[in-house]
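Reply to dn_fold:

You asked what the input looked like. This is it:
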Amino acid sequence: MAAKPVLAWALLALAFGVASPAGAVNHLIAIDEVLGSWQGDSGVQFVELRLLAAGQTQLASAGGADLVFDDASASPDAQRVFPFPFPNVGNGLAGARILVATSGLAAVTGVQPDFTLPDGFVAPRDGRVCYRVNPPQAPFQTTGVIDCVAYGRFTADTGSFGPPTPLTPDGRSLQRVNTTGSTVDDWSTTLMPTPERNDGTGVELPTLCGNQTIDPGEECDGANVGGKTCASLGFARGPLGCAECHYDASACTACGNGAINGSEQCDGADLGGRTCTGLGFTGGTLACTDKCRLTTAACDPTFFVPGDGPPGPECLAEWRVMNAAARPGADGKAAVRQRCKDGDAGCDADATHGTCTFALALCFDRDDARLARRGKPCRRAPVASWTLQKPANDAAIAGALVSAVGALGTSTVAGATIRFAPALDVQERCTAPVAVVVPAAPGKAGMRLVKTRTVGGRLRDVDTLRLVCIP
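and this is what came back:
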């Protein structure tokens, strides 16, 4: 029989966080190998346990231990429990195995199990197997579960054992190869299962996988996939492969079936309800690429920049900027630092070499879906005043911005502060565009910092915008 992986079983006991209470003789045990079917026969099943420390032989004593078998959803109605009956096992050496198997396995291999498992307890494709003791052997183990392996498309909670392994014990066995305590890291598969009794008697089951013929229990064999394709398996396209005589759909993709699946951002006309305006643009057409990724290339080149203020009242004021090359992506995030290449008509409104002229507007109380928090919209309020904090040393820019904001309502001006009387009501309004000129110095990008403060009752929104001109 082929040797099994040499593992640090004492370390595995520590990884489980299992204490060693006095008199406990069944808690330092882990699942070592699982087979759900063999060559198309689901009557051939086994679960092999391994002793992590010496003396763990009393499976039917002191409350006993059991194996718990779940289907893909861990439905209580489908759950099967196998309690260990007397007599207990005799070989208590560390590293010894305990074989729980169906009579079908005994008929195929001639190896009689230590405990006979009823047929159909192991779900071959999607499920879970757990080893449990009763009563729990440590205060924090309220369920008594010592070890579990979930596999395939298991969807229930897996607790501290982490996500299930996508591998299955169908026509091959799941075999432990590591001792981290994380299922996806600790389990692999073998085409030649190695069931072994507590007395050391064991066998290696030969496999038919690899002969290029699809034998019972196999989905495929090598290049022979039986005429199946990614599309016939429910995907949209891609090359179907074969691994260990199981379909390998890792190169298949659902992208192209017209519905959003998995990590897809979109699929065809299905954009998940998103639009250019919802992502912060003034308009345009949101689209989906053939890779099922959203593209904002056809959204307007003008968009809103929140300005990095406090998250609660962030929508009291936003910048509106035209910059086609720096438009937000699928996440709608608009950078506070806006870069423009000198001469780029998508952001530079002048024809003068050495400067970039940004078209900039300020908008109050915009209902911006991007600023919602925990399902609640951004807190808008009547705007009572607005202050231009920077640039204080540029009279032309300061005057243009102050004049544009003041034109939004009845107001008075004191320096760089505008007070509205009455306060602007809660509806979106934007200033006329203001031309902001930024120099492009040789070897150094020019920058202009525009910073304002908006007051709406007790709410304050401080917004910053950095405009950079690339020579």
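The longest helix spans residues 395-406.
Hope that clears it up.
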